[in-house]
Each structure stands twice: as structure tokens, then as C-alpha cells.
């Protein structure tokens, strides 16, 4: 059994890497390894592809990582600790391997190549890597280890058992420790599913599992960490904090005396994910300032509050851009939000340029045409001219405030309110935005005025407008969207499950399908569900989608 060698002190290094920033990542690995050695750990474990960052995508073709690995080995050769790190192993011919390397004091002790390469959902590892072959446990410094990389243990997941011919866990049994280095992105419900996989791995191998995950955001993908050690009886030791870089020291004892992990409420996970998503987007790109168009509505209020939490109030400017259709209530609510958050505001009215543009068009392109969505879109695009002008002249970038319900149905203006450098709420349904606002008010001392949470949502682009002039009520809309987008249900299945009229459902599905071209031109979206627009849900722009209505 795994306790026959006595106690073992393990360090789980949950780090936030930058894709392609090899020297930055290497310095971080050295720093954490030194700290682990200072705390008398015998082994320190880093995440999958920690040297190059995960996922490397096509950046992979430019990296010579064997040389970088050797520099890392040389830089840590004086440390009395065994180091486990994820890197890439090149081959003379063909694709490289996604590898785990174990080394100590200047010498490589073992190398393992990832066996199962996921090629579904957001993953496309077969594009970049060659699969390894299952290995028997290895003995290093008198201890027996079973080695795996991320997907190699997902063979235990009921939904994935049938897609792989090989089982990397087949030969691993009764070892001192199963090591799994991972790059497992966050989405709602995934942490619990992941913990089930780790727990089942510990049970099947009758061995403790040390699981080490990335943390931080890589553009749209967000990694929640939650590195941990799980014992065969299902108990969890030393789970690392979610969405935080950390070094966890655990003493492996082979006993189940630790409390079980209890997950955070999912809406609070979304809050933490979006905050780190904004923070890393700015930090890793060297961006210093965010501009948020403040309408006095729920979406812009939530994005502004998240930006302040991520970047600090000095790094966020709220921009009011009222028109003749903007209510005084909305102006007051936007100013109150800004005061509560302590941010600077600019007031840039759009009425004059709006009328000037419309007059030119009426005089030279159309006459006697009634007010319609054209004039609404002109207002939205003027606002984006203002925001991007601030970005160009003063530095910084614009944060997009469109939510997933709007993006799904095309309820937004291309090159207008759909514009920006980063889509903060693009994977958050409208009804979830309200729940997120409640979390913000708990954490940020009621920053969002109560009236913002209770008044009917409106784009305020024409007199007495509300969103429900165009869209079904958001509770109905989101119920359909979630089942269609996240659960892949057809109109008939949705009607049976929800009792919503089939014609309403078909109208919503039509809106989703015919607005794919807009979503292709939206900014990158922070992913919090398994079916985020973009990398998580890849659909053709030109298509009929006939089966959706059956």
C-alpha cells in the first residue's frame, strides 16, 4: 500500500502562466520550486505544459522547448527537491509529445507522454501532439508513482469511457501516488464533475491522487485551479483555492481524515472567473485602462463593477453617452454607480452627431423614410466611435457589455454595442446577470443601485422602449436558449420540457440561427459555460438548421 514508505511531503504548485512567455514561466517555476524546497517538500508538482503555457495552439510551432527545459533543470540543480513539470518533447519525425518530466538536481529521472488526446468541445490536441503509450508505474527515490496527464484520468468519466481504446490507468494499482498534471478549464458544473473523476481514479487505482491544475485566464479560457490530493476513500486533502495562484504543501499520510470538498455556489464562481478573466487579459497584454459605456442598465453596471474589482478604480472610466431618448433615471443610476465604485466618468452626449448623421442620410440617400432600427443602430455606433476614440487617444481598451441572451438572439448592433476588446458577459445569460449583480452588491457594498435591478431593461434608442418590445420575457427566453444552446434540445423537446408555446420556441431558435454572422464578429468572450460562443460552440454561418425545429 501507498503508506508503506512513511509520510511524504508534497507541494502542489498551482501557477498562472502566459502562453509563449517561456522565460516568464520558467522564472515562476523556479520561484515556486525554491519555496517548496524551503518548506521541506520532497516533491513539487506543476501543471500540464507549464513551461510554454496551456493551450499553446499554433504558437507551439515556434518553440524549442527541449533547450528551455534544460535551462530550467540547470537553474534548479542545487535544490534538494524532485520536480515534476509539464513540457513538450520533440520527435525527429512527426508531431511532438505533450509530456511530463521528472528531474532532480540536474538529472532527468523519467519522462512520460500524454496518452489520451482530447479532440472534442474546446480541445483539439490531435492537431498538435502525437499520443504516448500507457506506462507502468515508475520507481523514483524509493517511491512508486503512477503518471498521468489531464485527459488520461478522464477515462473514468461515464460520458467519455466509450471514446478511447486505451486505458492509461489499467496498469496503475496500489502505488504511493498517482500524479496528474492538468490544464482543465472552468465552466459551470465542471469542478464537481472533475472532482468525481479524480475521486474515481483514486478508487480504481487504490492510490492517492495528486492533481495539479492551471489557474488564470488565457484570453477566453479561464482555469480555476482547485488542485488537490484525493484518497481512495474519497476524502480530499489540501484543496487549493479557486481562481488564485498558490503553493499548497501537503503531507501524504495515507489516511482519510480530511473534510470533503464543498464547491462554491456557481454564480459566485462566475463572479470570480470573470474577475480573473478581465485581470489576466489586461495584465498579460500590458493593458492599463478600461472604458465602459454606462447606460444606467444592468449589463453595463455589472461589467463596470467587475472591471473595478479586477483592475482597481483608478484603471476604469465610465462613459455616459446620453441621447434624447435616455431617461433621467438612467443618467442618475449611472452616476450613482460611478460614485459608489469611486471611478471617473465622462459625459459625452450623442444627440447632436446623431441628428447630423441622420440629416445627411435623409438629404442624400433616403427621403421621407420613417424612424426604424436604422436610427437605433446609428446611435449605438456613435457611442462606439466615442469609446474607441478615448481608447485611441488616451490609451486603454473598451470592455464589451453584451450578455449571452442578446448575442444569441442578435439583439445588438454590429460595430455598435457589440464592439470592444473583450466580451465580459457574452457567456452569461440575462437572468444570470441579475443574479451576478446581487453577488456584486454583497461583495462591493451595494455598488449597483437597487433601481437598476428592478426597472424594466431597455436599450433606450427610441421613445418608451423596453427589451420586451422585441424579445420574449427573459425568463422565457433564457429557458429556451439554455435548452437549445447548452443541452442541444430541439423545439419539440423544449416545448415538452417547459410548456412554452412551440411558436415562441421556433421564433427564438430562428433568431439564434440567423444571427451567427454577428457572433463571428463579436470580441473574444470569457468562457463560463461549456457552450460559449466561439471556441465552445462552432456553428456555420450559412446553414439551414432544419433538425432544430423537429
What can be said about this structure in brief?
The chain has 550 residues and is of the alpha/beta class.
Terminal-residue CA separation: 55 Å
Can you tell me the residue ranges where pLDDT is under 50 for at least 5 consecutive residues? Answer: 1-5, 255-264
What would the average pLDDT be, to the nearest integer?
Answer: 92
Radius of gyration: 26 Å
Determine the CATH superfamily of the largest domain.
Carbon-nitrogen hydrolase
- Our count of helices gives 15
Which CATH architecture of the largest domain is right? Answer: 4-Layer Sandwich
CATH fold name of the largest domain, please? Answer: Nitrilase/N-carbamoyl-D-aminoacid amidohydrolase
The amount of helix comes to: 25-40%
In terms of structural class, how would the helical and strand content be classed?
A: alpha/beta
Strand order, sheet with most strands: 5-4-3-2-1-14
Sketch the major β-sheet. 6 strands, mixed
β-sheet strand percentage: 15-25%
Number of beta strands: 19
Count of the separate structural domains: 2
At the first level of CATH, the class of the largest domain is: Alpha Beta
Bulk shape: elongated
